[in-house]
Design a protein that fits this description.
single chain, alpha/beta, Spore Coat Polysaccharide Biosynthesis Protein SpsA, Chain A, seven-stranded mixed beta sheet, 25 helices, about 40% helix, about 15% strand, elongated, disordered N terminus, transmembrane helix
Length: about 750
């Protein structure tokens, strides 16, 4: 803002100089030409040496004055020329708080102007240029496939949202994996004035699969070629971005460059900043044909309507077919074909200043694109090395990227005041539910948490699952926060089957988890673990929401509902699969109970059999779970009977029963009203009983709780009286809801509670 103001002051000062200096000079000269009230002519024809008033001194003064006049006129001419150049160079963005439109930085349309733009940098100039209307929607297209690219898209979108002041419409060409991840993410993100449309990338494979491609992006790296055919026919223009892009400015500035296209210009591109297309990187290096250094396609401005009229589809196909006869394959995916087309048709391209795509691959000329931090617009990590790329200022670029990587996405849920937004049913329902709550209620925060929509990123890491042929597979389901991360490796060693985990993390913690997982040989060797990030929001730990997220995204017919601080016995996975068949879980409503034990020792020689566990129980190394603080929670399991049992046995529900069970995937969800500590599992087991599930204890199964520091939520429960009062209120309301839903059969829960 200060830069803009300084630019205006300079412009004004220069203008005043041009206008007033000549006037003042001539007034001075004119006044100086009078002596004794009579005009004195400066003309040499009128001033003769024989004049009595003429002296040698006055002659010298007059000559000196004439020289000064000529100097002033020359200075004015130079000033006028500089002002003219400044106006033609193009304005910087206008950030007036009360302005409904704002002007954008001028692009350049040819190589000479581009060089001038690079030298000039991003300096703020004021002038009349096309503006982007305040509420004009900006369209952005991104090709995204797989788990890793989905994470990259989130960082890109964060950088765009951080700077944006316009409604956005993202067109995501995504495979099934990316669509599932990103659809859930944006649905739960609920960012105002942002619309998302998906296009099936798998359906487009046949359009480009005939092109051999050596680039690491694979077949998806060619799909930008078919955007004219893929995107809606009424969409006239779009900004196309790679997933490894970071914005350092408002994307509306780039959108405004469309106004500068002239004639048949339909592609806005930045010159490639490496020597790749010059063909001198190594001996016998033979790149695809390109105009000069060629162009990089990490950032593209596409005039779709004109491209369609030019028959772009036919144009690029014919070019690709011709070049492939000699080149055999592409090395840089779509970029090679774009450049080959431009080589034949240079009039198609509008060359963008290189700060719109500062390419951070090794050995590039990217440092010529900026002189200062304020010059940066778009950073492109277009090297397979990504953040490890070599660049003089790589630390600065890395820190900028990490800023958005770890930035709290919840803060980007900003309204665009004055811009009408499309009606969002989910958002409207949420507002209606919240408006019905009494903010003066002492338990308001508890009730509000039930309706809080937490941003959710499914499958944060790569996930692969091969369904079991016998349809008996079981997924271990659990939830955790950052302070239980150390349990992951141990659980993976004890349970070889699929796992579904919901992690409650901040954006910064999610990145810490990513680094931890990528540095763990145990975790990286397991591809059947689904990690689902639920981002932090609010003051309570949403334990049952987390369980529901983990339950909802399992790939097996059965699930083992566990907790992260329990280690299952070795071989439990195979034992449960056999039990599923033995007890006909597919056709009966059963909940198979895995008896729970605990140890107070941080270092435990884990029992390898039931006999060994019983021996440790007798020696006092192990205990039945919570027998000393919450006996009722697991007493109905009947541990005395379990000690000698050799076959499964049935037990009845009792008040406060909360065992760990194996059920079919269609079992009811956990009740979200219970957050933090208290009654979160009890309520779920009560509902299973209300739905007439039969509780069956497995005689040769067990799990052991490992010791850890008390959670923050249990500390709040113990120290905060109002917390306990609200929990009691929620319990009563839940029981009343059960009675209304299940009728007479649910009355026993009220009776049991009163007798407990």
């Amino acid at each position: 803002m200060l830069g803009i103001c300084r630019g205006r002051r300079k412009f004004l000062a220069a203008s005043l100089t041009v206008l007033f200096v000549p006037a003042i000079t001539w007034i001075y000269l004119f006044a100086g030409s009078f002596e004794d009230g009579k005009p004195v002519s400066l003309s040499p024809l009128e001033s003769q040496p024989h004049s009595p008033r003429y002296t040698a001194s006055s002659q010298r003064e007059r000559e000196s004055l004439e020289v000064r006049v000529r100097e002033v006129e020359e200075e004015n001419r130079v000033l006028r020329k500089q002002l003219s150049l400044a106006q033609s160079r193009g304005p910087a963005r206008h950030r007036g708080n009360h302005s409904k439109t704002y002007s954008m930085e001028e692009g350049t349309g040819d190589s000479e102007s581009l060089r001038a733009g690079i030298v000039a940098g991003n300096s703020s100039e004021c002038g009349q240029q096309p503006a982007v209307e305040k509420c004009e929607t900006i369209h952005v297209a991104i090709v995204c496939a797989g788990y890793n690219a989905s994470r990259d898209v989130v960082t890109l979108v964060k950088s765009v949202l951080f700077h944006r002041r316009n409604p956005l419409h993202f067109h995501l060409i995504a495979d099934a994996i990316a669509k599932q991840i990103l659809a859930t993410l944006f649905q739960t993100w609920m960012v105002p004035a942002v619309r998302i449309d998906f296009y099936d990338a798998d359906e487009l494979k046949s359009e480009v699969s005939w092109i051999p491609n050596k680039h690491y992006s694979g077949i998806y790296g060619l799909m930008k070629l078919v955007l004219t055919k893929t995107l809606p026919s009424n969409l006239e223009r779009v900004i196309v971005l790679d997933t490894d892009i970071t914005f350092a400015t408002d994307i509306a500035e780039l959108w405004a460059v469309f106004h500068k296209f002239k004639g048949q210009q339909v592609l806005g591109l930045v010159e490639n900043q490496s020597d790749w297309y010059l063909g001198n990187l190594w001996k016998n290096h033979r790149p695809w044909p390109a105009l000069g250094r060629g162009y990089n396609t990490g950032v593209i401005l596409l005039l779709l309507d004109k491209l369609r009229k030019m028959k772009w589809e036919q144009m690029w196909r014919l070019t690709a077919e011709r070049e492939l006869m000699s080149m055999l394959s592409t090395s840089l995916a779509d970029q090679d074909i774009f450049n080959a087309v431009i080589k034949q048709n240079p009039f198609l391209v509008y060359q963008l200043p290189c700060f719109w795509n500062v390419q951070l691959s090794d050995h590039t000329r990217s440092e010529q694109c900026y002189r200062d931090v304020s010059d940066l617009k778009v950073i492109h990590w277009n090297s397979p090395k990504k953040l490890r790329v070599k660049n003089k200022h790589v630390e600065f670029f890395r820190n900028l990227y990490l800023t958005f990587l770890e930035y709290d996405g919840n803060l980007l849920r900003r309204e665009l005041f004055g811009c009408p937004s499309e009606a969002d049913v989910n958002s409207e329902n949420l507002q209606k539910q919240l408006s019905e709550l009494d903010e003066d209620d002492l338990c308001y925060e508890f009730r509000r948490e039930r309706f809080t929509v937490h941003r959710t990123h499914l499958y944060f890491l790569h996930y692969e699952y091969e369904p079991a042929a016998d349809n008996t597979d079981v997924t271990l389901v659990a939830q955790l926060s950052m302070d239980r991360l150390q349990m992951l490796e141990a659980i993976c060693k004890h349970w070889e089957g699929p796992i579904s985990l919901a992690l409650y993390l901040s954006d910064a913690e999610a990145q810490q988890f990513l680094r931890y997982a990528q540095g763990s040989e145990v975790l990286m060797s397991r591809h059947n673990v689904g990690y689902h990030i639920v981002y932090k929001e609010g003051q309570f730990y949403p334990v049952n929401l987390l369980r529901n997220v983990a339950m909802k995204h399992i790939s097996t017919p059965y699930m083992f509902l566990s907790d992260i601080d329990f280690l299952p016995m070795y071989g439990l996975y195979e034992y449960l699969r056999k039990s599923v068949i033995q007890l006909d879980l597919a056709n009966t409503k059963k909940a198979l109970i895995v008896p729970a034990f605990e140890t107070l020792r941080y270092r435990l020689s884990f029992p390898k059999s039931k006999a060994e566990l019983l021996s440790m129980l007798d020696m006092g190394t192990l205990f039945t779970f919570r027998y000393h603080v919450w006996t009722k929670g697991h007493a109905p399991t009947n541990f005395a009977k379990w000690r000698t049992a050799t076959t499964p046995y049935r037990v009845e529900w009792e008040a406060d029963f909360e065992p760990y069970v194996v059920v079919r995937k269609d079992c009811p969800e956990y009740d979200r009203r219970f957050v933090g500590f208290g009654w979160n599992k009890v309520a779920h087991i009560m509902e299973l009983d209300a739905q007439e599930y039969e509780f069956t204890v497995l005689p040769n199964a067990y799990m052991i709780h490992m010791p850890h520091a008390p959670s923050f939520d249990i500390t709040k429960f113990r120290s905060n009286k109002q917390y306990r009062i609200c929990l009691k209120t929620l319990k009563e309301e839940f029981q009343q809801d059960m009675s209304r839903h299940y009728g007479f059969a649910a009355l026993k829960y009220l009776t049991a509670e009163n007798n407990s």
